């Protein structure tokens, strides 16, 4: 199994979280420059559209990218505080020819001051109406950064749900 993990704007996938993901499969974690490349999402798509990717995950700006790539590649996504509505840098949203309806697990932190969950919730409601099937986990104690313990818990829940659906 292969997991494509997309980091946030000013972060990288840290070794502890990578180790969590490696329990479930091979991890591809490209180094993305969202600030200087407004086509980062399109570039990740072009680089990975023929790869055997099973799941796409991301945090913040990486959650934004993972959401769109999950639809384009018709893959399940796990998103942590995704910047779906507002972003501090310009990032073009590619027009994919055959977007899927999607499945995902979205984790929002109640104390997030970077990506306001109250902006994200109406967006997710609209996506639900379009057929995007997702589990929404509201973590009142979590801020923008996802602590390793919560990351590990949410990844485990994501894969447990996917196993039950098979």
Write out key terms for the chains shown:
Rossmann fold, six-stranded parallel sheet, 5 helices, alpha/beta
Describe the protein:
By secondary structure, this protein is an alpha/beta fold. It has one domain (2-165): Rossmann fold. It is built from 5 helices and 6 strands, in the order E-H-E-H-E-H-E-E-H-E-H. It has a 6-stranded parallel β-sheet with strand order 2-1-3-4-5-6, sandwiched between helices. Helix 4 (117-129) links the parallel strand 5 (103-109) and strand 6 (133-139). Helix 1 packs parallel to helix 5 and helix 2 packs across helix 3 (61-73). The protein is globular.
CATH architecture designation: 3-Layer(aba) Sandwich
Instruction: Please tell me the overall pLDDT.
Output: 89
Give the N-to-C terminal Cα separation. Answer: 14 Å
Biggest sheet, in brief?
6 strands, parallel
In percent terms, what proportion of residues is strand? 15-25%
Strand order of the largest sheet: 2-1-3-4-5-6
The count of strands amounts to 6
Q: Give the topology string: H per helix, E per strand.
A: EHEHEHEEHEH
Radius of gyration: 14 Å
Compact overview of the structure:
The protein is an alpha/beta fold and 166 residues long. The chain has five helices and six strands. It has a single domain, classed as 3-Layer(aba) Sandwich (Rossmann fold), CATH 3.40.50.
What secondary-structure arrangement, pairings included, does this model have?
Blueprint: E1 2-6, H1 15-22, E2 26-28, H2 40-48, E3 55-59, H3 61-73, E4 77-80, E5 103-109, H4 117-129, E6 133-139, H5 148-165
Parallel strand pairs: 1-2, 1-3, 3-4, 4-5, 5-6
């Amino acid at each position: 199994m292969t997991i494509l993990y997309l980091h946030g704007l000013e972060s990288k996938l840290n070794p502890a979280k990578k180790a969590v993901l490696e329990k479930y499969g091979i991890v591809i974690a490209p180094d993305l420059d969202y600030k200087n490349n407004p086509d980062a999402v399109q570039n990740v798509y072009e680089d990975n559209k023929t790869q055997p990717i099973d799941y796409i995950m991301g945090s913040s700006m990486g959650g934004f990218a993972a959401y769109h790539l999950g639809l384009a590649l018709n893959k399940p996504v796990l998103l942590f505080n995704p910047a779906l509505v507002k972003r501090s840098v310009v990032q073009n949203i590619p027009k994919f020819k055959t977007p899927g309806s999607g499945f995902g697990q979205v984790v929002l932190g109640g104390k997030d001051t970077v990506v306001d969950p109250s902006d994200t919730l109406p967006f997710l409601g609209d996506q639900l109406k379009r057929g995007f099937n997702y589990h929404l986990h509201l973590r009142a104690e979590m801020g923008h950064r996802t602590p390793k313990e919560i990351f590990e818990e949410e990844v485990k829940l994501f894969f447990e749900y996917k196993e039950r659906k098979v």
